[in-house]
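tokens incoming
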């Protein structure tokens, strides 16, 4: 990825996850933590976010994170896609 500093440098931006308390948040297959969370650092580009709530299940979203931006992802677990499970990819 090209960053503003030159070839090969990546730029870090932030994603804010707005989801019910007690949900696990995964970014690109890595467990970030449980909501509520501070803003998550991410690289510019396409990022897969998975939010798993123990009572309402899992929501997956692909977000495009732009340079010099602060991305906010609001998830309403009433639009649940999948039943609860242990971790993404299982």
């Amino acid at each position: 990825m090209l960053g503003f500093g030159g070839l090969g440098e990546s730029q870090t931006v932030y994603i804010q996850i707005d989801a019910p308390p007690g949900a696990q948040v995964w970014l690109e297959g890595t467990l970030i933590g449980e909501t509520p969370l501070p803003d998550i650092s991410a690289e510019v580009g396409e990022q897969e976010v998975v939010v798993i709530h123990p009572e309402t299940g899992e929501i997956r979203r692909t977000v495009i994170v732009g340079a010099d931006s602060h991305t906010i992802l609001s998830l309403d677990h009433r639009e649940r896609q999948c039943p609860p499970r242990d971790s993404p990819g299982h």
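note: The chain has a mean pLDDT of 78.
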